[in-house]
C-alpha cells in the first residue's frame, strides 16, 4: 500500500500509510524521506511518530502539523536484497478564520 496525497490543517495530525510485502525470512525496514531528506523520527518526536503495532507497516504519523512539514514524502521499504519506494504529497492548509462584524448603536 503506497502513501496517498493528504491535505492537513496546520495543528492537526496526518497519517502517511506505507505497507510492503516481503520474504518473511528477511528483516524489513521503512525509511521516510521528506523532499529527499531522511525524516529523523527520534530527533523530531514532537512532530513525528511511527506505528509499530502492525508488522510490515511503515506508517508515519505527522503530529501537530506545521507548514514546514509540507512536501513530498517518500516511503522506502527495504530488505538486504531489495527496496521499493512510493511517494505522496502532504499539503498544509492554514485554519480558516471566521470574521464577523458587530453592529453598534450610538
UniProtKB/TrEMBL annotation:
SUPFAM superfamilies: Immunoglobulin. It comes from the Eukaryota. Residues 1-87 form the Ig-like domain. InterPro entries: Ig-like_dom, Ig-like_dom_sf, Ig-like_fold, Ig_sub. This is Ig-like domain-containing protein. It comes from Micrurus paraensis.
Amino acid at each position: 500500500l503506497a502513501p496517498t496525497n493528504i491535505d492537513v490543517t496546520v495543528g492537526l495530525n496526518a497519517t502517511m500509510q506505507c505497507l510492503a510485502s516481503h520474504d518473511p525470512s528477511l528483516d524489513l525496514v521503512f525509511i521516510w524521506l521528506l523532499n529527499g531528506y531522511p525524516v529523523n523520527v527520534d530527533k523530531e518526536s514532537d512532530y513525528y511518530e511511527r506505528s509499530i503495532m502492525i508488522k510490515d507497516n511503515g506508517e508515519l504519523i505527522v503530529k501537530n502539523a506545521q507548514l514546514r512539514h509540507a512536501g513530498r514524502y517518500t516511503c522506502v521499504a527495504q530488505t538486504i536484497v531489495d527496496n521499493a519506494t512510493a511517494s505522496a504529497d502532504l499539503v498544509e492548509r492554514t485554519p480558516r478564520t471566521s470574521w464577523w462584524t458587530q453592529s453598534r448603536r450610538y
